[in-house]
Amino acid sequence: MKKRYITTPIYYVNDVPHIGHAYTTIIADSAARYFRLKGFDTFFLTGTDEHGQKIEEAAKKRGKTPKEYADEISAKFKALWDEFEISYDKFIRTTDPEHIAGVQKAFEKMYQKGDIYKGVYEGHYCISCEAFFPQSQLIDEEFCPDCGKQTGIVKEESYFFRLSKYQDRLLELYQKEEKFVLPKSKKNEVIRFVESGLQDLSITRTSFDWGIKLPPSINDPKHVMYVWLDALLNYITALGYGTDERLMHYWPADYHLVGKDILRFHAVYWPAFLMSLELPMPKHIATHGWWTRNGQKMSKSKGNVIDPKAVADAYGVENFRYFLLREVPFGQDGDFSQKALIDRINNDLGNDLGNLLNRIIGMSGKYFGYAIQSHDVAKLYQKELEEVDAILQALPPLIEDMKWHKFLEELWQALAVANKAIDCHTPWNKMKEGKEDEAMALVALVANILAKVALMLHPVMPKTTQTIAQALGFRINPESFAKYIDQSQLLENFHIQKVPPLFPKIEEPVMVEKKEPPKKAKKEEPLITIDEFFKTQIKVGTIQEAKELPKSKKLLKLLVDLGEERPRQIIAGIKEYYTPEQLVGEQVCVVANLKPAKLMGHISEGMILAAKDENGLTLVTPKTRTKEGTPVK
Ligand code: MSP
Question: Which of 229, 220, 223 minimizes the C-alpha distance to 206?
């Protein structure tokens, strides 16, 4: 029997599940359900990623051990997926003893092969951004490309993986496997990255503890493994790599579902690790885009994170599944709004799908006592059957390429054929004209189309389609899929049952969204004396000149007149909020007695005051025009 192995990323336990996690998981679940329905032996893996500094710190903040904290959050992910009836076959945790043993085995193998060596990690570190940057990305060779602050060199003993050794083989892989990265358009960025030159990868850390130790045979207890090496290996340790290998026949993975932010880890590092382990390559790294909110990235600090459980509670988990897959082309970013979700439910689901079932129930009841036969369908409605068949036969490649939005769009064309057939052939007129056979064939045609749509839609809306199947009197399973989809057969008889409306109309948003960002816990602010306050000299100034700093995303270079002999040069991080033209002539308040500092190689002789909230940043200015140099008290 053919197999399929499908994975989600394993989710970090430093945060609770949000819509992005639900998105990846629901796509993977739909794929797994589709392949099961096609009769494939399918293994679907999800789980949690529990090691690393971020998690160690998150636990510490809450006064818990990392394991206690990981247990708590991992359980929340599992509970949510269970509530959503995600059909995973295994939920892996990177703190599972089998995973730890498997990772150590893999490390040992790579080490023995000579692909891992000990060295010193030396990198430019920006404390403010908590990130290392390669020399090539720095501005003027020393400033952080993100915030413009000076970076420092940090040195740490580390083990390295010989990533550079695999550069050519990786490029060959991308060339040979046309669909290694899906959508195909995303492959170019991976190729460009690899072509620009791969450096060996630091794969151990000594600066924190919460990670997998090196194998006992290497005996170097200071080191723990880099979290990405540990995490990526979950895809094989879940099958028992290095311990009980009975499930290893599922390897290689057919689909690793990932978000675009972690494509590089999956399309570059992971295949290189696998090459080193002499294991086959995954078939597809399927990369989706990001969900945003009003065009902005979701983040806890902005308070705009969408809780998938709240959406599912308000609108139904299956409607939410349909929306996620239908609304955004796979690979692109999409904006979440309740309005878009409601439109999909009322129009696509309510009008096109739900109403069709109602029409079948209504007509079959009124005219035929809920019993319908298909014997005249092929004779009378050949054209419609051929149209629907052509639509259905074109669908599997769309799913195999993870083009879920296109798949659903095309599937809805089959519903359009059915709805159009009713409107054109008006069974109620046929009944009046005494053409009962023709009317029954029409209702049977439409019931057949709906049954086939339900079979195809089943992976995306498992329960709803079961209700449709129950109403039409057939079963959804691999046998019926093979018969009615693969072999294009017709259902012979229908015993229609009434069911309550599938998609009651939604008039207005149901979910209450947080308007306010979450209140930060108030820290005890220490009080200062008036003398201490007066140590800070704030003066009114007028901006004489404003220029962009090439290469900087955030900084502008200003000349500000403070009533002194010469204007001050001030480097201000306001470029995302103001253009240089908006600033010239504006009055501002300047901290005038700050020690000069260098930002991106330019001296800054003061600081401009500004206020920033979730809507953006605004400069603090005197209400009326004020003489330059006037102190602000
Ligand atoms: N632990 C790593 C993955 C290791 S896999 C070997 C990780 N975890 S994560 O929890 O931060 O993110 C998991 C997934 O959620 C990623 O695929 C990421 O792209 C996805 N999303 C996080 N926020 C998202 C949105 N706002 N929208 C869509 N998906 C996004 O990375």
Answer: 223
Q: Which residue has the tokens 């609304």?
A: 327
How many whole angstroms from 12 Cα to the centroid of ligand 1? 8
pLDDT in tens, 472-481: 999 999 999 9
16 lines ligand 1 (CB under 6 A): no
Flag whether pLDDT at 128 surpasses 70: no
Task: Work out the burial of residue 269: count CB atoms within 10 Å of its CB; fewer than 13 is exposed, 13-18 middle, 19 or more buried.
Answer: buried
The CA distances from residue 305 to 16, 21, 97, in Å, are: 10, 12, 33
**Tens digit of pLDDT for each residue in 6-15?**
999 999 998 8
Q: How far apart are CA 402 and CA 396, in angstroms?
A: 10
Cα angle: 272, vertex 274, 278; to 5 degrees: 115
CA distance 154 to 256: 34
Rounded CA separation 122/130 (Å): 15
The CATH class of the 337-495 domain is mainly alpha
Q: Is 558 helix (H, G, I), strand (E, B) or coil?
A: strand
The closest of 84, 107, 103, 105 to 95, measured between CA atoms, is 103
The reply to whether ligand 1 has any atom less than 6 angstroms from the CB of 232 is yes
Number of residues assigned to the chain: 633
Architecture of domain 530-619: Beta Barrel (2.40)
CA angle 211, 215, 218 (to 5 degrees): 120
* CATH 2.40.50.140 domain extents, the chain: 530-619
Gap from CA of 341 to ligand 1 centroid (Å): 22
CA distance 604 to 514: 39
Instruction: Cite the residue boundaries of each domain of the chain with CATH code 1.10.730.10.
Output: 337-495
Cα 27 to middle of ligand 1, angstroms = 13
pTM for the predicted model, two decimal places: 0.81
Instruction: List the structure tokens of 450.
Output: 């709906």
Angstrom distance (rounded) from CA 8 to CA 283 = 14
Report the alpha-carbon angle 35-483-378, nearest 5: 135
